[in-house]
């Protein structure tokens, strides 16, 4: 199949004779001009050996996890996955998975090596933890497809660990949130107002990606860029109160991004200023930014908004997340549902 280039890396890709249905083998040959030279030599060797009927593909499993992970990220970029999705995978590789697998060859990793992830992701919402584990599993699936490992060891771990993380409890009320906004610094206050107006995911995946070019002033809506694929964008209607806030902030803006601080777009976190606002508001419960999105979903459902419409606003493809994580935590809603049905006459 010839020589393949991915980023700075050069590979020789070929099929093993008589291996019906088997994925092509991809041998790494190095980077830059030297990698290209080695790839050309190796490709010529394989071509000649096949013509003579003497070709036997080497079976080697000596790739390190970080090497394969980097290659996988390059593969995502080639497939034109969204910048946010690729950035999230890269962040998890460096922040979470490097510690577990940095100095291990892929063939040395066994299914029990994944056990620390149970505690590491136990505090996350089930959907978030599942997404993280799915991203890691995709790397090992890639390694298996490329014949870097004989079998994906994470499949066994996932099979024996029906992963359930603790659900994120709704620990604040709307009045609590209003007090936090009142005590927030200007940049955080606008960020919280934006979260409440849109229900977007806090942080770099959605909130910090919002740009002024995403705002449609005439239609009064904003485009939220997809977190995984470019086709996952969604449009959020905006109310008049928030539109007035946007107009004022647009006049003050110094960057292309809605959320900025001291003339620069915010890229990572506002956790410190949020914690200060929570403390100043006198909130004693453990609150994080994601609770604002949680509260947004709960309050819109409490206001009798259509379940599917709310799912679309939040960027959920199914209703499962809302029905299992959000709606059941609304105090009194189940009792209201029971009391709403007609009553039988007393005997």
UniProtKB/TrEMBL annotation:
Keyword Membrane: no
GO biological process: one example: DNA integration
UniProtKB keywords: DNA recombination, DNA-binding
Signal peptide: none
GO molecular function annotations of the record: DNA binding
Sequence ranges assigned to domain Tyr recombinase in this UniProt record: 167-340
Family: Belongs to the 'phage' integrase family.
This protein's name: Site-specific recombinase XerD
Record organism: Halodesulfovibrio marinisediminis DSM 17456
